[in-house]
Write a structure and sequence with these properties.
Length: 71
């Protein structure tokens, strides 16, 4: 619901997997928005975050069981 105004305004957004919830084990993510026509900025931020999280955890950010369900 909170993304509707951004979508209507043409604001680019990206959601990056950030791990799983300690409470229920479900996947979690972080969403970023950027100014209009700044999609490349989002790709750089998303790639940097994903690389940092992967390095920190030493592997996949989200367990492979979740990734296989969506593929």
């Amino acid at each position: 619901l909170a993304t509707i105004p951004a979508n209507l305004a043409g604001v680019p957004g990206i959601s990056v997997p950030s791990g799983t919830s300690s409470a229920d084990g479900l996947p979690t993510g972080i969403q970023f928005l950027a100014p209009v026509l700044e999609d490349a900025r989002l790709y750089r931020v998303g790639a940097a975050l994903e690389a940092a999280l992967t390095e920190r955890w030493g592997g996949r950010i989200v367990p492979s069981s979740y990734a296989q369900e969506g593929e």
